[in-house]
User: Which sequence fits this backbone?
């Protein structure tokens, strides 16, 4: 417990989290501080490329064992299953319509790559190793949850879902999946040779870039919270912190079953606990336009993301350490 | 300078729907359109701004100049896409140069 | 397709005034507007371009579709904001789909 | 609010021609214009998008509000620039505030 | 004198100043070379974050002594006072209207953070130490000058100033103040621990980033100069180089009274000598729309900024060294 | 031969080329992955600045010998001459109109700076030295080809060329020429002193930045290929791979005549073999608007650029090594 608290304090006082807090503060105080959209996208391309590449190099170093496949499968199953849990919780805790509840559920089955990146950098700075292929698991968990959500809606008969071929392609080939998987493969192919060439671009400045990116995430989250005051009921807020804990438990179980390392278990918890705010919202606007975007964006970006970033990650890491004895 | 009567249709729509809209327009026989970026806005679904967004959110404005006799087709096509979505459609009269282009 | 007469108001104004303008529009009962970025322009106060600017300078275009009967209100509101400032206001007739949105 | 009849000319043209167009407009006595960015579009010469472009490609939209009596001059000037180039020109009626500015 | 000249030559032939000159040349020659707006904003966010953070870490290292508070107060007073001097000079040297003169005066009471950043990097490369909290002084000096300018206008009865609550918030929470103060606090809180994590992002590439940023500043300044040929009278030009010298003297006096280190005195001179071209212009557009932006932008960005960058900074550093014996 | 193959394999499996391939794949699969325009421009500014500066520092280190002038002259002559060869080949191989053929020819006389940058980084990673002034040669080769192309059109009487003073200025002062020459001069003036200051910005992260830039080039090339399916005939495709070989031979001859080092010969081959897709297309839109942009962009960016990047560069380097015995 002592350890968890000191770890949490360490995490809370890291430049990354403080940058997020600064962004949140600036947005809530209505400062006109903004990060240009193009810069934010460029930063996210950098982060995705760097994390994917590093994962690939790690796999190249250690060889691909059977763990990769089973971890991918576990991730896909979690992404399929978690929306049902989330949907049940939402229908119990809130008065959201079937469509809105299903849309929110899709976000929680999918993942937040920035939460993953932040957790990975916390692990690195604490010297805890993890499986390089967790990056591929992250990519695999982005999309399945969307299908579960659409199935929930169609079962309730409310609103025809529109899963045309175009939407499938958009979801499966969305920018972050392609970049993550692509750079993972590039890292695997080029291995340490490639790493040596671009190390001083993707390794040394990584945490600094993450700081600026989290500053922007704080700004976006804060603006979202301000714009949607009153959108969330107390029940929805409770969901926003309970669901990540439920997800983390599911991730813990999966990680232990798979026999992952301490870092791997922590990352699996983080993936299951985190909620998407890039790929899934775009898919929902196409497939479930009747669902209110303020609800799912505010919950995932305004409540769960900050929760995971500040309290969640240190807790998940500590639990993973305690349980795996790592 | 010889000008010709035409219609200017302006559709403000969510960015993830842009491709579907322009595909529908093309199917409806529209020969050209222009897409303008949108910084932000406000409507029934609240206020939003593009700044700092990471995803493919936000809106775009699609402007389409067409011969008046094609307006009905275009609006039908646009409507099927916009129908369930956030967005606005407006039409105004205009004159164009080089009518052979439309 | 059923359309309804409306007015399209386009206000080109300095970026630092954008918030004040949209607040004034909202107070005047306007239910929606869209903000488009502007790259540059020229007018009585000279030529300017957005490229490389660091501050919050430049201009934006605010487009507003409204029912004709609300035009007077809107123009009054816009005028109080624009009055002492660089910028232009134009109004044209248009037709909109889904009138219940305006 | 007192308004005055005017024309709104919208010219969508290749970015490398922007300077030549605005110079021609200025020579034709136009006192102001606004340049808006364009994200992409489609026309007789195919579809294009601005994303990821490195060069000075793409198109821009130049909007020009003028007194009706100057329209002929403006269109002649614009036409000489646009003539051999990709692009569209449209004109619509509008009303402006503060006519002394035009 | 010998030293000042060789220092000036050193400064003039640094990559930073040459980049600025390149930008200036390109714009005056009407090259279409441009830095995208989003990139320029991203660079400025980087610079503000890095300089603020480093200042905070420096304060964390040395502890906050009473110097911080008195330096802040001195900065605020300078910012309040300098517009009156500037206004007097302008009314004497030029035929500017009260409104235009007051608007220009506001710029010269406030500060240019890029000039500050460049000076800080000149000090670093010469191994001259300075107080980390000078960054906070810079932030404190941004706004007060605006109030003096509006008071000058209202006293003359020409044009009601419009200081509504919104404008106050915009000025006090403008992007650069929030980012500078925020990253200063983050640096103070995380100290060397935080520095180690992001050093290779904010320290090593700093001067290179500054080069590209100054390239863009040169382009912007050059385009401004070209667009406003003939806007400035000879008197105004004289003001543009005399006022920074007057400001630098005031800064020198303040720095000596405060007992600052050699570097601190130099930075105080630089702050007082520099003129704003980001925060104040935006505030002027709202509060004094009748003032002609070409005049104040051309003076501050086209005349005083290049003057300080090329001749001013080395002179101020040399004087600070001579006077403090540092 | 063995060597060429292993060099080619090495090159093909470098992170840079794989990033280009990833971009190509993403665009052809219609993924919505995109690099914002502003970010792409910022990356290209970085690359131009870094390569120019490094070239200038290299010249400062080794002194300017007569080689610079003669290499510049040779480059200009190649740029003037190659369009005639290209035009002849095109008229033989394809049914393109005079205007279209001339426009394409202009691109192949000019150069692709990204191909140059990639080749320079391949040389660096193989420890092959080259003349620093090759950067200046690259800049000098951008424009002359345009004149040859316009002369070809006017000779055929088809379409009045419009070379007004404005266009001249635009071509000679286009962004990449100004930046390349400017930073070359800055590097020459500041030499190793300047290099030390900004090395960790322009040297260490260079290859990583190049990766992201080539990712975007792949995306742009792929989108171009997709949009212009069917535009190119088989003859045009043949031209797209034969012309770079012809150019490389001409470059080889020039390099040997000039007595360049192994790296210098390789770079001269690369310059002559590469085709412009930034400066020349913009000039063609103004001067030869009747020429179809899909043809010249698809050929230069969709065919020749990938060819040079993957097979061309290793081949040219190997030939240069074989011939110079380096
Ligand atoms: N009356 C209007 N005039 C101009 N743009 C509007 C108007 N109403 C809505 N919009 C635009 O359409 C978007 C979605 O509107 P809504 O569907 O009403 O939320 C807004 O964010 C605005 O960009
Ligand atoms: N006649 C016009 N047509 C279109 N835009 C204009 C016109 N006049 C002014 N503008 C725009 O409004 C801005 C300020 O104009 P002004 O107040 O005349 O300096 C210009 O930079 C243009 O963007
Ligand atoms: N009918 C149209 N409506 C709106 N924009 C058009 C239209 N036709 C062409 N454009 C725009 O003008 C550009 C060039 O058109 P074109 O010369 O027909 O290839 C297109 O990429 C569009 O941006
Ligand atoms: Na999840
Ligand atoms: Na000052
Ligand atoms: Na060539």
Assistant:
């Amino acid at each position: 417990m002592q350890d968890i608290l000191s770890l949490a304090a360490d995490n809370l006082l890291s430049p990354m989290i403080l940058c997020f807090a600064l962004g949140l503060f600036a947005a809530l105080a209505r400062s006109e501080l903004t990060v240009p959209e193009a810069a934010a996208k460029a930063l996210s391309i950098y982060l995705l490329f760097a994390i994917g590449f590093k994962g690939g190099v790690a796999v190249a170093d250690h060889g691909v064992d059977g763990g990769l496949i089973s971890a991918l499968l576990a991730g896909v199953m979690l992404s399929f299953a978690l929306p049902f849990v989330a949907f049940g919780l939402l229908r119990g805790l809130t008065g959201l319509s079937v469509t809105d509840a299903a849309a929110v559920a899709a976000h929680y089955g999918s993942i937040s790559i920035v939460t993953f990146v932040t957790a990975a950098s916390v692990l690195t700075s604490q010297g805890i190793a993890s499986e390089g292929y967790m990056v591929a698991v992250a990519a695999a968990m982005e999309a399945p949850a969307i299908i579960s959500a659409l199935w929930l809606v169609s079962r309730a008969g409310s609103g025809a879902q529109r899963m045309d071929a175009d939407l499938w392609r958009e979801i499966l080939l969305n920018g972050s999946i392609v970049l993550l998987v692509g750079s993972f493969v590039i890292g695997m192919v080029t291995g340490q040779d490639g790493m040596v060439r671009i190390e001083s671009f993707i390794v040394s400045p990584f945490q600094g870039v993450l700081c600026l990116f989290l500053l922007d995430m704080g700004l976006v989250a804060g603006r979202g919270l301000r714009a949607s005051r009153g959108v969330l009921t107390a029940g929805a807020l409770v969901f926003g912190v309970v669901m990540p804990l439920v997800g983390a438990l599911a991730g813990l179980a999966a990680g232990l079953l798979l026999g992952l390392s301490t870092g791997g278990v922590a990352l699996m918890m983080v993936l299951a606990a985190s909620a998407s705010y890039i790929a899934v919202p775009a898919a929902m606007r196409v497939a479930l336009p009747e669902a209110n975007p303020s609800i799912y964006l505010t919950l995932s970006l305004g409540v769960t993301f900050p929760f995971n970033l500040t309290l969640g990650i240190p807790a998940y890491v500590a639990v993973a350490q305690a349980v795996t004895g790592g | 300078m010889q000008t010709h009567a035409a219609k200017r249709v302006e559709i403000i729509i969510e960015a993830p729907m842009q491709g579907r809209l322009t595909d529908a327009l093309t199917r409806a026989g529209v020969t050209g359109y222009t897409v303008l970026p949108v910084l932000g806005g406000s409507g029934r679904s609240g206020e939003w701004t593009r700044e700092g967004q990471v995803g493919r959110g936000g809106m775009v404005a699609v402007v389409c100049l067409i011969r008046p006799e094609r307006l009905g087709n275009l609006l039908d096509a646009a409507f099927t896409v916009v129908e369930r979505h956030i967005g606005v459609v407006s039409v105004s009269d205009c004159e164009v140069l080089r009518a052979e282009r439309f």
Summary: The first helix of chain E runs from residue 2 to 12.
